[in-house]
Specification:
Layout: E1 5-7, H1 17-23, E2 32-34, H2 44-47, H3 52-60, H4 69-79, E3 92-95, E4 98-102, H5 113-116, H6 119-129, E5 135-141, H7 146-154, E6 160-167, H8 173-180, E7 187-193, H9 196-208, H10 210-218, E8 221-224, H11 231-250, E9 260-265, H12 270-281, E10 285-292, H13 297-304, E11 306-308, H14 329-336, H15 341-354, E12 356-358, H16 361-365, E13 370-374, H17 377-391, H18 397-413, E14 419-423, H19 431-438, H20 452-463, H21 469-475, E15 483-486, H22 490-498
Parallel strand pairs: 4-14, 5-6, 5-8, 6-7, 7-15, 9-10, 9-14, 10-13
Antiparallel strand pairs: 1-2, 3-4, 11-12
Helix pairs in contact: 1-6, 3-4, 3-11, 4-6, 11-12, 17-18, 17-19, 19-20
Length: 500
């Protein structure tokens, strides 16, 4: 049966995959969710013999029912090509008895490439299917990695413009340089004096502003999103968990049907939600471990049943996780209510009004297969150093959150189930913090006079891990975007760029 998409908040509109992708958000401000979740049609024995491309097709096909086989396979081929520095696309490295799923071998050295490499191709097909004559404006907030990956994907794509907002002082120097050097005539990058939640709230406000939508329509423009609120971003992420299990089976690391744990460093909840959907498709999962940094709003939620964003925002050295409003959690809440848009919408209204909500005992029972933990900056630094000293394997600050949380989870529970840890960024995206960790310093220590590029070169010599080509290209790149605005100035920046 064909999968269609509904809003988490009660709109009765039902959208096809291509319509949901183009809309980004549902008209009522909710997120699109599939009206049912499919099961894998191929056996694990069959999947274990497939390439990443073949597995991606098997996973994505039922979710994108209005795409033909030819169209979807063409999108997959175009996305997962030589932009990735390994034919495996998402290889697994075993270190310290754990399996690190390396999702950072694409052109921007972060896991966002896994979905944002394919989204522009999916979007172009979706626009054709919907007979869309308006220019598509990709409007995105980023905590560091989504922005660059989206910019790289949509730069100079005909029929599109892309606008990215990021917290000016809330990303790493490498992340910022990746964004502000982006070329393309259809590209705008703006820093805001605020945090990621401010940027995300501003983007959502523009999406749901009826007057702004009418103004865009009169000018033959329409908004869409490249954030993981877009179902076209979320669906490709499911594929790498299925591919990882198939790879572990192929290499003899696990037996067919053996349940694994999956530990995901989590901010906006999209990456671990993809693992949740993979589980529903048939991935044998024992526990989904949600790993938070010091902004532990998700840890507190899973421990208490209360989601409360009314707390201090902490800037850490894992900036892509510095989030207090985890947008994709809304999809999990919807499913926990028994797919009740009315109940989910009421909780989201309460979050908007009060900054918090409490789930019922019945809902909590639906989340019992999740575990949660958090890691401090000190614990992350120790994890980077210990793992490197013991195994020679180098990880970034976000992956360190996942690895540190998993280490504490095993100590607390004694659960020695084989565990897949989502490694979400190259260590060379955060060279100063990684260098500090190896020296036993605080991650944020700025006393080292060397530039980040020099520290990355020193890390490469220490680890024997070559510098990625995108990093080398960045050294020669010219800054093209210098705009900064207040958080209430985002609308003006958008309208100026679009000529409204």
């Amino acid at each position: 049966m064909e999968i269609l998409y509904r809003s988490t908040r009660g709109s009765r509109d039902i959208a096809s995959a291509s319509a949901a992708m183009l809309n980004g958000l549902a008209p009522d401000g909710g997120l699109y969710v599939p009206d049912h979740l499919p099961h894998l049609e191929k056996s694990w024995t069959e999947l274990a013999q497939m390439s990443y491309h073949g597995i991606a097709y098997e996973v994505m096909r039922p979710f994108l029912a209005d795409f033909s086989e030819k169209e979807l396979k063409a999108c997959i081929r175009a996305a997962y090509d030589k932009k990735f520095d390994t034919p495996q696309i998402a290889p697994i490295t075993k270190a310290d008895g754990r399996y690190f799923l390396e999702l950072w071998h694409g052109s921007t050295m972060a896991f966002k490439d896994m979905a944002l490499s394919i989204l522009p191709y999916l979007m172009a097909n979706a626009a054709h299917k919907q007979n869309e004559e308006r220019e598509i404006v990709i409007l995105t907030a980023t905590s560091g990695d989504t922005g660059k990956a989206a910019l790289a994907g949509f730069a100079d794509v005909p029929g599109t413009k892309i606008i990215v907002f990021y917290p000016k002082d809330g990303v790493s120097p490498i992340q910022e340089k990746q964004m502000v050097t982006q070329e393309g005539e259809n590209v705008l990058v703006v820093g805001i004096n605020g945090n990621f939640d401010d940027a995300q709230n501003g983007v959502k406000a523009l999406f749901t502003d009826e007057a702004e939508r009418e103004r865009m329509n009169r000018n033959m423009l329409r908004f869409s999103s490249a954030n993981s609120i877009n179902i076209g971003r979320l669906v490709p992420q499911i594929a790498y968990y299925i591919a990882a299990y198939a790879g572990m089976l192929r290499e003899g690391e696990i037996g067919n049907g053996y349940k694994i744990n999956i530990c995901v460093p989590t901010g906006n909840f999209g990456n671990i939600l993809a693992a949740y959907y993979a589980q529903w498709m048939g991935l044998p999962v024992n526990r989904l471990i949600c790993a938070s940094n010091s902004n532990k709003v998700l840890f507190d939620f899973f421990k208490t049943g209360t989601y409360d964003r009314n707390r201090e925002f902490i800037t850490t050295q894992s900036p892509s996780m510095d989030i207090l409003i985890s947008s994709n959690l809304e999809r999990l809440i919807y499913h926990a209510t028994g797919d009740s848009a009315e109940k989910c919408g009421a909780l989201m209204h309460q979050l908007s009004r009060d900054g918090r909500y409490d789930i019922s005992r019945e809902m909590a029972k639906e989340l019992t297969y999740f575990s949660a933990g958090y890691a401090t900056e000190e614990e992350c630094g120790k994890e980077i150093r210990t793992l490197f000293e013991d195994t020679g394997y180098l990880i970034d600050t976000h992956t360190a959150v996942g690895a540190a949380v998993h280490r504490k989870y095993v100590k607390e529970t004694g659960d020695d189930t084989a565990t897949l840890i989502a490694s979400t960024a190259s260590p060379y995206k955060f060279p100063r913090a990684v260098w500090n960790a190896l020296q036993g310093r605080a991650l944020a220590d700025r006393t080292q006079d060397a530039e980040d590029e020099q520290l990355a070169e020193q890390l490469s010599k220490m680890s024997g891990m070559p510098l990625p080509e995108p990093f080398l290209q960045l050294k020669r790149a010219r800054v093209r975007h210098k705009g900064v605005c207040e958080k209430d100035g985002m609308r003006a920046e958008v309208e100026r760029f679009l000529g409204l």
